[in-house]
Amino acid sequence: MNREILVVNSVTVDYPGVRALDSVSLAFRTGEIHAIVGENGAGKSTMMKVLSGVIRPTSGSMMLKGTQRQFTRPSDAIRAGISMVHQELHLVGTLNVAENVLLGREPTRFFGVAVDQQQQRIRAGELLQQLGGDFDLSTPASDLSIAQQQFVEIAKCLASDARVLIFDEPTAVLGEVEANRLFAVMRRLRDEGRCVIFISHHLDEVISVADRISVLRDGKLVQAFARNTSGIVQSKDGSVADEGRLAHAMVGHELSSIYPEKFYSTSHYPNSKSAAIELRNFGAKKKSHSISFSVAPGEILGIAGLVGSGRTETAEAIVGIRPCEGVLLVEGREIRFGNPRAAIRAGVAYVSEDRKNRGLHLTLSSIANMMLPSLDKVSRIGGIMIDSQTEQRISQDWIDTFQIRCARPRHAISSLSGGNQQKFSLARWLEARPKVLIIDEPTRGVDVGARGEIYRIIAKLAREGLACIVISSELPEVIGLSHRVIVMREGTIAGEIPCERLARKDCQERIVRIASGLSEESSPRI
Amino acid sequence: MNPRTAKILRASQRALEMWGVLVAFVILFAVSTFNQGFDFLNPENFRAMLNSNAPVGILAVGMTLVIISAGIDLSVGSMVVLAAAIGMTIMNSLIASGTSELNAVLLGGAVTILAGTLAGTFNGVLVVFGRIAPFIATLGGLAAFRSMSLAIADAGEIRSQSATMFSALGRGGVAIPGLVNAAGKPLTISYSTVIFFAVAIVAQWFLSRSRFGRQLVAVGANETAARYAGISVSWVRLRVYAIMGMLAGIAALVQSSRMNSVSTAQLGLGSELDAIAAVVIGGTTLRGGFGRVWGTVVGVLILGMITNILTISGVSPYWQGAVKGAVIVLAVLVQRSSRE
Fold first, then answer.
1. Cβ atoms within 10 A of the Cβ of A394, count?
2. Read out DSSP for A473-524?
3. How far apart are CA A199 and CA A244, in angstroms?
4. Collapsing DSSP states into helix, strand and coil, what is residue A416?
5. Residue B218 near residue A364, CB atoms below 8 Å
6. What is the mean pLDDT of chain A?
7. pTM (2 d.p.)
């Protein structure tokens, strides 16, 4: 029988000016996957920080296995068997898999002086096998894919004999197939009698994986669902947890279809003459990628594919971040960019998938971030001085247009929610008036409410004649947003879903099949 | 601890990070005054103190910019001596060949600044195109530039052949109207001090208001994100090292005219560490992406005041390094950021 292993009792956390958690009580049980959902800022991360000892609650108590506990630092929580599988991976790149798994708890010989290499490999191998991972223990961590690194992280938690594992947005960096493998691992951990806590923005995942779902909104627990004996996840009053109901609970009001209506015109089947951008056997150098497609003004082209299929590399090669091979045409003229500066001058902008590390400067102000690609526009006296009034005005225009919630645009952008940060990332490139906009994972780390707004923005831009390329690992997003979807696999286009087939129900499944190489329909390799 | 106290503590911690350097300055000033009274408050004392710290101050202003870009320049002291040696050699040979003193001084001065700029650009090229870590690249300069100047003068001293004009820059000053010293002469603020403050004001303006300043902070805070935003990281880097070199040239000019000679073994020796110390005390973070020139100026004044007060109090100069070291470490401790 599942017993309560970790119970929080009316926990409240106050940050300066904000009540992040407001008297929330939750019980986590062994042998259960307990999902916590909520918009950004609803208090999910704060709750996890309390559980893992990163912060101390302002009031409220915590019981672990029936005894009252208070953690003052993360190591307390780890020692008590509560481990966090971090969103940012903390592996040591120069150490190999086995060394990473047992980092800090190496088996030793000679009175604890020497590391017992053999024992280490055996232990690490066992732990990874428990997870169903099958890779070489002597690989340096820096050579692992993100998905593999996550496995190693989980194995690390098991090595510390964690009874409670917290997964904070684990699928944000994974493609469909990798995510499914991860869910299998989570189920395995649950079946071994551990408690798995799962935070996700993806409601479909949550519904299919979780045994219990708690919904947070504005720091309060607003609804709870649990799996009953017949396997259906429902709330006390009997309503079944589906995406609509969860979204409703999270947002507090009904979301109409989150995807905007698609705008169709004759220009959606471009020939090379009218294309805003065209690739011919193009790809990042030394990757033996070969990609050909074209996008017309006003069209949204979706690019689906697994992580590592070469989507981001291709985008980076287009805008000159990586060296490229093949032919690139922008508005019919052959061109090649040496750096993103040249690309934006020619009207091609790229919004990176990695907002924290490549997209934005988190320590700089919203305005500074906003204006960075187009400093020319606000420079006076021969390009030396920045006209702060002009930049303030331009930023404010975008804040109004996109309804960005940003009270103090001169403060560090890191204080904004993911959705608002993402709106700034879009705005900064739109200010440079591109003709082609490449958006890599447009809604990563963005909550449901802001997601819809970003989709509407993209659709509106396309309607106004911008050629958009949307790269995304979220199939509903690619399908819902795009006029046409191409599926990439191993650096080539493995298939294309035309407009009229995107509305069909089996579309999502088809894309998964093509992306993972299961379909016979995949186009012949070149 | 109740939340109210915690809140106040947090706020004061943040305030200390921001304004701690000013607090330290005020405390040090008060202690000095209390301790030495008129000897310290004497305007002549201030004049001398500012005058002797101006060259390091000018270097520290440049160092602030370099450190904001997440770089470092260990070669500034050696750049000073190299620029000064080249400039003075040229000036002397011009005078020897019969050029008028004024022209020789002007040309020599221009060559000094140019030589510094070139040396700085060389550092920049190593860092940007050679892809050498700034610490290593400029460590090379630290050794090489001094060695070159030693070779120029056979490790000896180069004496200025300009009788009065060259040294006027280092010794003269602007009279402050209405103020006279004990001897009844008008009180002056030296040219070198004026140059130091002018350089600092321009640099602070560039940092907070110019496009280059914005790009510099962006590169220092996150180079990758800057590149993705379409900033030419190499060009920003190259310029900051060139500017550092130019300021080293100016510092060399100020310093050599004050001495009216260049001692190739001594001039600028250890200046790089004083400059870095001033930057750190001023609250600029060594990992880059955040900094302020005004803090550095206060940092220079703090270091200068420590030496000054210890000298007046008759403390052995051998102990001054220990006190300075303690202040540097203390400054970092206080400012150790909760911003992480």
1. 19
2. S-HHHHHHH-SEEEEEETTEEEEEE-HHHHTSTTHHHHHHHHHTT--TTSPP
3. 18
4. coil
5. yes
6. 83
7. 0.75
CA dist B55 and A222 (Å) reads 65
CB B181 within 8 A of CB B43: yes
Helix (H) or strand (E) holding A265: none
Q: Identify the pLDDT of residue B337.
A: 54
Question: Is B2 an interface residue toward A (CB < 8 Å)?
Answer: no
pLDDT < 70 positions in chain B: 1-3, 181-182, 335-340
SS3 of B215-262: the string is HHHHHHHCHHHHHHCCCCHHHHHHHHHHHHHHHHHHHHHHHHHHHCEE
Inter-chain touch A372–B227, beta carbons under 8 Å: no
Report d(CA A212, CA A223) in Å as an integer. Answer: 11
Per CATH, domain B34-335 is 1.10.3470:
yes
Of A522, A471, A350, the closest CA to residue B230 belongs to A350
Confidence at residue A522, expressed as pLDDT on a 0 to 100 scale: 42
Question: If contacts are CB pairs under 8 Å, which of residues 296-325 in chain B contact chain A?
Answer: none
In chain B, which residues have their Cβ closer than 8 Å to the Cβ of A347?
A: none
From CA B297, how far away is CA B47, in angstroms rounded? 16
Interface of A with B (CB under 8 A): 14, 16, 58, 321, 339-341, 343-344, 350, 352, 357-364, 368, 371-373, 375, 379, 383-386, 388, 428
Binned at pLDDT 50, 70 and 90, residue A349 comes out as very high
Q: How far from B327 is each of A164, A360, B74, CA to CA, in Å?
A: 47, 36, 21
Q: In this structure, which long-range contacts are made by residues A398-401, counting pairs with CB atoms below 8 Å and at least 24 apart in sequence? A: A398/A370, A398/A423, A398/A424, A398/A427, A398/A430, A398/A431, A401/A427
Long-range Cβ pairs for the range B89-92 (8 Å, 24+): B89/B152, B89/B153, B89/B158, B91/B160, B91/B161, B91/B162, B91/B166, B92/B158, B92/B160, B92/B161
Residue with tokens 């698609």: A262
The torsion angles phi and psi of A349, rounded to 5 degrees, stand at -120, 150
pLDDT for the residue A203: 80
Q: Are B308 and B49 in contact (CB under 8 A)?
A: yes
Q: At A216, phi and psi to the nearest 5? A: -105, 145
Tell me if residue A267 falls in helix, strand or coil: helix
Question: pLDDT at position A526, please?
Answer: 33
- Domain parsing of chain B, residue ranges: 34-335
Average pLDDT over residues A1-13: 85
Strand order in the sheet with A467-471: A348-351, A436-440, A467-471, A300-305, A484-489, A492-497
| CATH numbers and ranges of domains, chain A | 4-89+163-251 (3.40.50.300), 92-143 (no CATH), 266-360+436-515 (3.40.50.300)
Q: Is the pLDDT of residue A274 over 70?
A: yes
A12, A358, A362: best to mutate for the B interface, most B CBs within 10 A: A358
Closest by CA to A418, choosing from A438, A448, A457, A398, is A448
Contact A339 B225 (CB under 8 A): no
For the record, the structure tokens of B99 come out as 């050029």
**Contacts A20 to B, Cβ<8 Å:** none
Interatomic CA distance for residues B267 and B171, integer angstroms: 17
Q: Helices B43-68 and B76-96, interaxial angle, to 10°?
A: 110
pLDDT digits (tens, 9 = 90+) for A20-42: 888 999 999 999 999 998 876 67
pLDDT single digits (tens) A465-521? 899 999 988 788 888 888 889 998 888 888 888 887 887 777 777 887 787 776 544
Contacts with B6 (C-beta within 8 Å, 6 or more apart), sequence order = none
pLDDT one-digit tens code per residue, A88-103 = 667 777 788 888 888 8
Strand extents, DSSP E, B55-172? 157-159
With 70 as the cut, is the pLDDT of residue A258 above it? no
